[in-house]
Design a protein that fits this description.
Elements lengths: L1 H25 L1 H31 L12 H36 L3 E5 L5 E4 L1 H7 L3 H4 L4 H4 L3 H9 L6 E6 L5 E10 L3 E8 L1 H37 L4 H33 L7 E3 L1 H16 L4 E6 L4 E4 L1 H18 L5 E8 L5 E7 L6 H4 L11 H6 L6 H11 L3 E7 L3 E8 L4 E2 L1
Helix pairs in contact: 1-2, 8-9, 9-14, 10-11, 11-14
């Protein structure tokens, strides 16, 4: 302020001095003109600088304005520095805001921000897909007008957000299960978080079904064993009858043992999702083992053909591959009537894939069952499966072993004519 008054005083004094000199030499008319001229020069200069400033303000480019000389240079320099600082702060805030938005958009969960009237202030793309929203269209719309589920509207109206809410049959095809919960923040606003729990719900349902199936499968042989034991304890039986009961008890115990072994095998396979090892597995040796086991299981009731049409061996886990092959062969034996034929073959097909196939002349399988055969404990005919000694886990084990070896299990069947089960291994799993 002092510097400005000093400059102003200097200009006035200079104008007065010039006016007195002019008055002394040329008279009062010229003195007035000279004084006014000297006073108007800084005013005109200031007006020019203000006009330039206004121009750069309108174009929002003050920081690019050339600096004038004199007193205005310092003023404009400070103004430019202030504008640059403010703009840099704004850019930092905008970048931070964009990072937050990107982070929310990258979240696998739906996020909606609601104001005090439950109007949508912002939502990410996941929540748009979950609820069929379009942010640009639905912004500032009340959420209960867009999500019309009665349980959701009741959840909002109660204003008790301590527990989450589960919404079933949501999403574009009504196949999603969504868990949502509202969290208060700010001035009576709420953050609505939505999680897709469809897979968790399915896993929980599978767990319940699995426990129920295991309990059911174990209950039957245990009940039979207890019945036979009570009979043996309470009745005097002849030797032949006692031996017959013992044989039946042994059969039921063997069934439980097979079930437990298959459950352990399946649990180990599910716990290890890594690709199987690449150890060399001799297919001819496996076929010889399969033939011996098949003839023992069949008791001479079936005719077998085992063919190795290619000398390429497999690269994988020998124990797992033998288990998969054995399950396919034993299934064919169990479900093929006496005097039926079973053809087991190993080839390298036209696509260069290793192909192990088991073809039987059994009753065949209706097409509606084919897609579910690899489910645990899935049986077309439960009573018949128990009679043949199956646990209902064989094809589930085969599927997991196939996945660990990057192989593909295919099933072809015609009711009344038989079935063919094939395991196709990629070229990378073959060796010479």
């Amino acid at each position: 302020m002092i510097s400005a008054l000093t400059r102003f005083s200097f200009v006035v004094c200079l104008a007065l001095i010039a006016a007195f000199i002019t008055l002394y030499n040329w008279g009062p008319e010229y003195a007035i003109v000279v004084g006014v001229f000297l006073l108007s020069v800084p005013l005109v200069y200031s007006y020019i600088n203000l006009a330039r400033l206004g121009k750069y303000v309108q174009s929002d480019s003050i920081e690019n304005m050339p600096l004038p000389s004199g007193f205005w240079e310092e003023v404009f320099f400070r103004l430019q520095r202030l504008v640059k600082t403010l703009k840099q702060r704004m850019r930092n805030i905008e970048q931070q805001h964009e990072r937050f938005i990107e982070a929310f958009q990258a979240s696998p969960n739906g996020i909606l921000m609601l104001d005090e009237s439950d109007q949508i202030e912002w939502c990410n793309s996941i929540s748009e897909r979950f609820f069929g929203l379009i942010f640009k269209r639905d912004v500032m719309q009340r959420i209960n007008f867009l999500i019309r589920r009665p349980e959701f509207i009741q959840y909002l109206n109660k204003r008790n957000f301590d527990e989450p809410l589960l919404l079933e049959r949501m999403g574009p095809d009504s196949s999603l299960s969504l868990m949502l919960q509202a969290f208060p923040f700010g001035n009576q606003r709420h953050l609505l978080l939505v999680q897709n729990v469809t897979d968790l719900q399915k896993a929980d349902a599978m767990r319940r079904d699995f426990v129920a199936n295991v309990s059911h499968e174990m209950r039957t042989p245990i009940t039979v064993l207890m019945g036979f034991l009570e009979t043996v304890q309470s009745l005097e039986l002849e030797k032949n009858q006692r031996e017959q009961y013992f044989d039946m008890m042994m059969s039921q115990a063997q069934r439980m043992k097979s079930l437990v072994e298959d459950l352990l095998t399946l649990a180990n396979l599910e716990a290890n999702s890594l690709p199987a090892a690449t150890n060399q597995v001799n297919v001819e040796t496996l076929m010889a083992l399969l033939k011996n086991d098949a003839e023992a299981l069949s008791h001479g009731n079936h005719s077998f053909t085992f063919e190795v049409l290619n000398k390429n061996n497999l690269l994988g886990d020998e124990r797992e591959i033998l288990s998969a092959f054995s399950n396919l062969v034993s299934n064919a034996i169990r479900y093929t009537p006496e005097a039926g034929a079973i053809h087991v073959k190993w080839i390298v097909n036209a696509d260069g894939q290793g192909e192990f196939s088991v073809t039987d002349t059994g009753p065949g399988i209706a097409s509606e069952h084919l897609s579910r055969l690899t489910e645990r404990f899935y049986r077309i005919d439960r009573s018949r499966s128990r009679d043949t000694g199956g646990t209902g886990l064989g094809l589930a084990i085969v599927k997991h072993i196939a996945n660990r070896h990057q192989a593909q299990l295919t099933i072809e069947s015609t009711p009344g004519k038989g079935s063919t089960f094939k395991l196709r291994f990629p070229k990378e799993r073959l060796s010479s």
